[in-house]
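Hi again,

Forgot to attach this to my earlier email, sorry! This is the prediction with S-adenosylmethionine bound. I've pasted everything inline since the attachment limit keeps bouncing my files.
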Amino acid sequence: MHNDDPPNWEEQRKMMVQHQLRGRGISNQRILEAMGTVPREKFVPINYRHATYHDGALSIGYGQTISQPYMVAFMLQLLDPQPGDRVLEVGAGSGYQAALLGQLCQEVYAIEIIDTLAERARQTVQELGYDNVHIIVGDGSLGHPAAEPYDGIIVAAATPDIAPPWQEQLTEGGRLVAPVGSQGAQRCLVAAKKHGELGITESIGCIFVPLVGEHGW
Ligand code: SAM
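Structure tokens for the complex follow:
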């Protein structure tokens, strides 16, 4: 390839799936397919677009990030979304993970507290035709009561705890995945709701930007 050739996004996406995801143990076929299909480059600001398929998080402005592809895949695999699910994402950011969920689930509500980011995310998911993805501006630490209950809730910002509204807005049998800990370091938790209570399993360590709002920092 010559330096002035346009990037071959499809090829880069394929390599990302092969090396960063499969190569590190992501095995959920539907998630691998979705990550091999959704054009991540459309969610990355123009000045970082060349680095879209690098193995890391990238700035999306306003001090926020689009998460590392591996981390996105890992958390989605913990969530284990099903085709008929209605899912809430807290921290829509660029809209990338919301688009992935749009491909994996029936209905997606993705809430973002920074209105400019939410507007940009909404435009991108609309342009790509994800009609089942709804980007909402608001404080996701309160969940999104207007569309509850959810079969799954995925939190994409570091949270001090599992906010009570998330537990309330999960269906019986529903699952929540969140990075829980301090502002500097967290652990991914998977919580499954049974008889109204959450059974919690701890997974790998991670570092996310902090959740703000009523139940955040
Ligand atoms: N999932 C996103 C994506 O695919 O681009 C990346 C999310 S980014 C790591 C975390 C996002 O959470 C930021 O955009 C931030 O503004 C948002 N956020 C922080 N606190 C929030 C809150 N209380 N409600 C909704 N969004 C919040």
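The longest strand covers residues 170-181. The beta strands are 58-61, 64-66, 86-90, 107-112, 133-137, 150-155, 170-181, 186-194, 197-206.

That should be everything now.

G.
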